[in-house]
Design a protein that fits this description.
The protein is mainly α. It is built from 49 helices and six strands. A six-stranded mixed beta sheet has the order 2-1-3-4-5-6, covered by helices on one side. The radius of gyration is 41 Å and the shape is elongated.
């Protein structure tokens, strides 16, 4: 209820003449000819104000009352039938004070005046006898409001009495300050504060406590702290009040600092303060301060207080010190363990991931103690399962909760919906939505937000918007959930419209709101728009966080814009934003995409300095980076040092060996993984089949393909079928590969026909190649790689008319082959060799060294493979074309600049040709060097005249 409208406030201030010179607000919005409301008009009989001194409050005796503290002797005889009779009797009592108990008289008169609706007279009785009856404050306020009195009238009457010269002590001013606090009336409170300073009451501890509470609620915690610091006599009660005010305002660090100062002056804290301080230490993860509070509770015997003990348990749990939480719980007397104590320790177990132990505690110890679990107990277990990632158990326990007779509340439903989101059980989510509607939980903002999130993540934006539209209570999280859904779906117009609606309703977008747009644009490769949002964030007065920058870097990495990702990271560092593990993972993905070993090694060192190199996601990203940069042995070292290897780690390492052509190593890792009790998934079998196809292991490939569904009930995807076609085709079983495609239960896509066409190119099977090409030309009419493959096949068979036919087809479609490039890194600098663009600055020296190497390896038996040139020209011209292949130039430049026996690393954007593959083997033999070449399909490791692929590529 709001009492402090402007007119009432101005009435009070205009009549508070002794205070005006102290009030900075007193001359704002002046109004004339104010009329008091009827209830505030002067009474018919003036209330006498005796000049006699009141007896000391300590001498007053109060008789206990069961219903009302006011003595009411005339109700039964019905002698008081009118307001005038009440006033006449009051006047007689004042005139004949000898036989009157003033305390009893005050109580009686206040009640009588209230019953007749004369609130002003009741207030005057209360204030005039304040020294006697201030202890009746709470009872008087309850009676006053129960009869319909307006608390602002109390302030008006207080002003009237004060202006007539009635002297009030600090207790009366304390009472009035409490009224100002209840009304949230800042202006009147400032007037009262100025008055009490003038009267010299500013050192009264109770009055200053009231002022601290008033300023905390009505102005700011800083002003409340100022009142405290300006008080000369800082007693225990004042310390407790200011600490509690800071805790209520969530100024946790201020509260901790004040509490420390409080201990230095030996002020004693109440149990309530200790409870709140422990909660603050839990929220701040301030373990050391929490331990000190625990010590304080031990010193002053507060550990016998159940609330204090429960808070200590919760504090240790939030700081991940579960063994200490359990020790505190065990130290409690069994009789002192409340249900909250059990819930606290159960919550500790669930947060620690020991949900089975939590059940043991519930079933065994709680039953032995005669304590029955409640819905909070069940919610703690559900929350523990969510934190642990045991989402199936969440839903099982949720059903058990219903069967046990508990009615799921908003916390239970929120946990269940989170599990539904993670498991993708949309149907069950809709059932829970039905329960929410039947149980009227749709008014709960957290439930609504989670429902919106569930529909968003199940790609049901219409239903998400319907839930959002009918939600009675929306907070910033609800808005952000739907905005993120539209952004991630690419519906930025709808997201912007929601943003405008949110601002119209007075809700300012926060950093999460803006990050939704950054993530959405970045995921779709629209980096310019994402950068524009970053500028909007800065212009709105908000500083982009590490999440904002990471979303941008991650979007670049996911869309293959690896160079952009590294450039944005440089900007992030320039703005002194500290990266976290997700940032490092995205950067490592960019390095892996570019095969930038040196940059990847720098980021590895950087992650070690940040202390996040042991993060399981960072370790997995490091394995992937080293694999794709050709450092398989380093990747294996990182992998072997991981104590708790996840399935993603095993899959990454297996795929690494697969692309390096180590099929047997892949199978060894697979067996070790199963020994550890880790169940393979679809990606595991992709790695296994890739290892088999790159090593020519046909029988093993069939075994793993059959095992997928038979042993693990994993339905093969198009990737698995593509691996099998590739495996059979490369091994020369082209007819079997063709039959396999015909019997596939799913429609073959371009990857399937592409794998068959590449196999036909290797084995020069023109019949099947033309079938595959016809399919590919329809599916991918603008993919020049398919046309180039056919031209290579025709040229190798000297079918030049067919070569010209395919070439003309490409011209008719307006197609041209994309640029072919290769690069190598020397002294932290990338040297690019491309079929388009400017030639390398050292091109003359490179070709000179190339001719020398060709002459040298010809003496070792090298013969140029002219079939790699699909042009109808003479052999000399073909040899010249072969010499211009970008991978040859990159390898030769690496040989020229190689120092200390370091491997030569080359990256190529298309598959290496047969002639370049042969040249690389001879160069490794002639110059006794290692060459690591990554092409569009796999890694080739050349050493001593051999390649690790065993020519199976």
């Amino acid at each position: 209820m709001t009492f402090c409208n402007f007119s009432k406030q101005q009435i009070f201030i205009d009549n508070l003449s002794p205070f005006h010179h102290l009030n900075p607000y007193s001359h704002q919005n002046p109004k004339k000819n104010h009329m008091l409301p009827k209830s505030l008009s002067p009474p018919l009989i003036s209330l006498p104000i005796p000049d006699t001194h009141f007896p000391p409050s300590s001498s007053i005796q109060f008789s206990p009352q069961k219903i009302s503290p006011f003595f009411h002797p005339y109700d039964e005889s019905n002698e008081l039938r009118t307001l005038n009779s009440v006033k006449e009797m009051h006047a007689q009592m004042v005139k004949s004070p000898k036989n009157v108990n003033f305390t009893t008289m005050d109580g009686t008169m206040m009640r009588n005046y209230l019953e007749f609706g004369d609130f002003v007279s009741a207030i005057k009785v209360f204030f005039v006898g304040f020294a006697r009856n201030y202890l009746l404050y709470n009872s008087f306020m309850e009676e006053f409001e129960s009869f319909g009195g307006d608390p602002f009238e109390i302030l008006v009457v207080f002003n009237e009495l004060h202006s007539k010269g009635v002297e009030f002590d600090s207790k009366a001013f304390t009472f009035v300050m409490k009224i100002c606090l209840a009304l949230r009336d800042l202006y009147v409170g400032l007037e009262i504060h100025a008055c009490l300073i003038k009267k010299g009451f500013h050192d009264d501890v109770h009055l200053n406590c009231a002022l601290i509470n008033f300023y905390e609620k009505c102005l700011s915690i800083d002003k409340a702290n100022q009142v405290f610091h300006e008080t000369r006599y800082q007693e225990d009660f004042l310390w407790n009040t200011v600490v509690m005010a800071n805790l209520r305002s969530e100024k946790w660090k201020n509260a901790l600092e004040l509490f420390g100062n409080m201990q230095r002056v030996s002020a004693k804290a109440t149990p309530g303060i200790i409870v709140k301080m422990l909660q603050a230490c839990g929220k701040l993860r301030a373990l050391n301060e929490g331990k000190q509070l625990h010590g304080y509770a031990l010193r002053f015997g507060l550990v016998s207080n159940t609330l204090v003990c429960n808070s200590i348990i919760s504090m240790y749990s939030r700081n991940n010190r579960f063994e200490l939480a359990r020790a505190v719980f065990d130290s409690m007397e069994v009789c002192n363990r409340s249900l909250s104590s059990w819930n606290s320790i159960i919550s500790s177990y669930t947060v620690d991931g020991c949900v089975s132990d939590a059940f043991d505690v519930i079933v065994k110890e709680m039953k032995c103690s005669g304590v029955k679990p409640d819905i909070i107990t069940c919610n703690s277990v559900l929350s523990g399962y969510v934190l642990q990632g045991s989402y199936e158990k969440v839903l099982t326990s949720f059903r058990s909760l219903c069967y046990a007779g508990f009615k799921p509340d908003s916390c239970s439903v929120t946990s269940a919906l989170k599990a539904v989101i993670e498991l993708g059980l949309f149907k069950f989510g809709k059932e829970i939505h039905g329960y929410v509607m039947r149980s009227s939980l749709n008014c709960d903002v957290y439930v609504c937000t989670t429902l919106v999130d569930m529909y968003v993540k199940n790609d049901c934006l219409e239903k998400a918007h319907a839930v959002f539209r009918h939600a009675k209570n929306k907070n910033i999280y609800t808005w952000n959930s739907l905005i993120s859904g539209y952004s991630f779906k690419g519906l930025f117009g709808d997201a912007e419209e929601l943003l405008n609606q949110m601002e119209e309703e007075g809700i300012e977008p926060d950093l999460v709101t803006w990050n939704c747009f950054v993530s959405g644009y970045s995921m779709r490769g629209r980096i310019k728009e994402a950068l524009a949002v970053m500028n909007r964030i800065k212009s709105s007065g908000v500083t982009p966080s590490v999440v904002s920058w990471t979303a941008l870097i991650s979007g670049c990495s996911q869309n293959g814009k690896y160079t952009n990702a590294l450039q944005i990271f440089s900007k992030m560092q320039a703005e002194n934003v500290k990266p976290h593990s997700a940032t490092i993972c995205s950067l490592l993905r960019a390095c892996a995409g570019l095969s930038l070993l040196k940059k990847g090694e720098e980021i590895h060192c950087f992650s070690m300095r940040l202390g996040i190199a042991d993060d399981i996601y960072v370790e997995t990203a490091l394995i992937d980076m080293y694999i794709k940069a050709g450092k398989l042995e380093v990747a294996h070292n990182v992998f072997s040092k991981i104590q708790e290897k996840t399935l993603a780690c095993w899959n990454c390492m297996m795929m690494g060996h697969a692309i390096h052509g180590h099929g047997e190593e892949v199978m060894i890792l697979y067996d070790k993984m199963r020994e550890k009790g880790i169940r393979p998934d679809a990606i595991t079998f992709t790695a296994l089949l890739s290892g088999c196809k790159n090593s020519g292991l046909v029988d093993e490939g069939w075994k793993f393909f059959d095992s997928m569904q038979e042993d693990y009930n994993i339905i093969p995807t198009i990737e698995h079928y593509c691996c099998m076609v590739d495996l059979l085709g490369k091994a020369g079983f082209l007819d079997e590969a063709s039959d396999f495609i015909k019997t596939m239960p799913i429609k073959p896509d371009a990857s399937i026909w592409g794998a068959l066409l590449k196999a036909c190119r290797i084995h020069k099977n023109i019949k099947l190649a033309e079938i595959a090409a016809e399919k590919l030309f329809k599916m991918e009419p603008n993919n020049s790689a398919n046309y180039v493959l056919m031209m290579n096949l025709y040229s190798s068979l000297n079918q030049w008319d067919d070569v010209e036919r395919v070439k003309c087809l490409m011209i008719a479609l307006g197609m041209r082959s994309p640029p072919v490039w290769s690069w190598t890194q020397v002294n932290q600098r990338i040297h690019m060799f491309s079929t388009y663009g400017k030639p390398h600055p050292e091109q003359g020296e490179i070709y000179f060294e190339l001719y020398r190497l060709i002459s040298e390896i010809q003496n070792l038996g090298y013969v140029a493979d002219l079939s790699c040139v699909c042009h109808n020209i003479d052999d000399n011209e073909k040899e010249k074309i072969l010499l211009s292949h970008t991978e040859k130039l990159a390898m030769v430049y690496g040989v020229m600049k190689m120092k200390g026996g370091s491997p030569i690393r080359v990256v190529k954007n298309t598959r290496i040709c047969c002639d370049c593959h042969t040249v690389a083997k001879y160069i490794s033999l002639a110059r006794n060097c290692e060459i690591l070449l990554k092409d569009a399909g796999r890694f080739h490791h050349f050493k001593d005249g051999k390649c690790a692929c065993n020519d199976c590529w």
